[in-house]
Here is the input.
Amino acid sequence: MQKLIEILNGESYEDIGLVTETFRNLISISDNESIIEGAIGEYIDQLARLLIYQNQELREIVLEFFCYLSDLKMATRLSIAKHPKILQRLVAILSTGQIKSNSQKSQEQKSNQDKINEKHVKLAAITLNNISQAPAAKQYLLIFEKELFFVAASDETVTPLLSQILFELSIAE
Here is the structure.
């Protein structure tokens, strides 16, 4: 695990991509969950940084990883919520679902881009919904309540998930 974290801290985006994919594959096996949860402080900054990385494939892998990670223990959900950038970046990804592809691209390229964006938005919404289930994490989500409401009102693909988050936040207040 330590070697993977060292590579994740490196400069080679190819290696970072491979390690990120390895993390995603490791977390899907229940025997690895405690190891990954135990080392969260050692890799969370690097993965948070990759949420805004331009390579959409890599961003998708990181979103899938956070989706799995946010479905584990309440303490893990709280660790994710406490990170100074993760919630902000997940909410930003939600907002990109409302932006349509550039009109200068071909119809097929726009359609593929829209599908990728939609998948990223859904993964971000699922992750935020998982995090909202941790009572102590709700205070960190409250600052994004307005943005979550706007996205829920304008993007029906994630309205049910965001409505659940908003409900959780309303009973927390």
In short: The domain at 2-172 is CATH 1.25.10.10 (Leucine-rich Repeat Variant). The first helix runs from residue 2 to 8. DSSP finds eleven helices and no strands in the chain. The chain has a mean pLDDT of 90.
